[in-house]
């Protein structure tokens, strides 16, 4: 068996026994810049456990010497219980490029893997914070979302109610950096003063990001 450490790869003889992964890592979705954590529990008798990110070894744990942490952003915590040994991989300051397959591998055993999705919370804005709207005037409100991954889901609200999707159109584009922009245009005619809210949402956000504009209705009479 070849083992990855800070001194490169080396061969460990005598590892002919078969051990198993009892509980492997589970899928995770996190915001860029935060931590991602994965657990892998293996049966007793294990000798070497290797964590891989997109096929590249990033951390090795030895039953006799502990963890070999060779990359600053990849660290581990270890737990031992009656169920076996659990290695927790911690990825610090996650980056968009970290998205992909996270695998826990033990010698002579089938590896177990999960997928990491790193998402980016971009900016959201409406150019004007207040607008004056006249009677029978049709207005367009533009909401701009910049630098997101994946492209955010855009919705609109007036006061506390969602606006029908037929009232607005959203255009999306992707830049060379892999980030997405979105431009949503709401068209409506008001009969009263209203607070309009544009919301942008991705899975990793606990709550949608929002931008608001107050439309002050002025009766022509």
Explain what you see:
The protein has 221 residues and is mainly β. It has a six-stranded mixed sheet, with no helix packed on it. It has a five-stranded mixed sheet with strand order 14-21-20-16-17, with no helix packed on it. The protein has a four-stranded antiparallel sheet with strand order 3-5-10-9, with no helix packed on it. It starts with a strand and ends with a strand. The protein is rod-shaped, with a radius of gyration of 26 Å. It has strands at residues 2-5, 8-11, 21-23, 28-31, 36-42, 48-53, 56-62, 66-68, 74-81, 84-91, 100-106, 112-119, 123-126, 130-134, 138-148, 153-158, 161-162, 168-174, 180-189, 194-201, 209-218. A hairpin with a 5-residue loop joins β18 and β19. Residues 13-121, 122-214 form the Ig-like domain.
Average predicted confidence as pLDDT: 89
* CATH topology name of the largest domain: Immunoglobulin-like
Written as H for each helix and E for each strand, in order along the chain, the element string is EEEEEEEEEEEEEEEEEEEEE
**Number of helices, counting only DSSP H or I runs of 4 residues or more:** 0
CATH superfamily of the largest domain: Immunoglobulins
The low-confidence runs, each spanning 5 or more residues with pLDDT under 50, are 1-7, 9-16
Instruction: Provide the helix percentage.
Output: under 10%
- Architecture of the largest domain in CATH? Sandwich
Strand content: over 45%
Give the CA-CA distance, first to last residue: 86 Å
What is the count of structural domains? 2
Q: What structural class results from the helix and strand content?
A: mainly beta
Shape: rod-shaped
Q: Tell me, what is the CATH class of the largest domain?
A: Mainly Beta
Organism: Uria aalge
Protein name: IGSF5 protein
Domain Ig-like: 13-121, 122-214
InterPro entries: Ig-like_dom, Ig-like_dom_sf, Ig-like_fold, Ig_I-set, Ig_sub
């Amino acid at each position: 068996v070849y083992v990855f450490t800070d001194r490169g790869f080396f061969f460990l003889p005598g590892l002919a026994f078969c051990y198993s992964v009892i509980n492997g890592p589970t899928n995770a979705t996190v915001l860029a810049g935060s931590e991602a954590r994965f657990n892998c529990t293996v049966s007793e008798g294990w000798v070497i456990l290797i964590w891989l990110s997109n096929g590249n070894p990033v951390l090795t744990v030895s039953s006799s010497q502990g963890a070999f942490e060779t990359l600053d952003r990849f660290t581990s915590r270890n737990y031992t219980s009656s169920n076996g040994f659990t290695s927790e991989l911690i990825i610090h300051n996650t980056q968009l490029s970290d998205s992909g397959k996270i695998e826990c591998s033990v010698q002579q055993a089938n590896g177990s893997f999960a997928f990491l999705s790193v998402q980016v919370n971009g900016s959201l804005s409406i150019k004007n914070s207040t607008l004056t709207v006249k009677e029978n005037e049709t207005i367009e409100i533009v909401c701009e979302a910049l630098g997101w991954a994946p492209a955010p889901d855009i919705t609109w609200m007036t006061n506390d109610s969602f606006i029908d999707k037929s009232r607005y159109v959203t255009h999306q584009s992707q830049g060379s950096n892999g980030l997405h922009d979105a431009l949503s245009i709401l068209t409506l005619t008001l009969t009263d003063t209203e607070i309009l809210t544009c919301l942008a949402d991705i899975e990793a956000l606990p709550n949608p990001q929002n931008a608001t504009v107050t439309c002050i209705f002025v009766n022509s009479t």
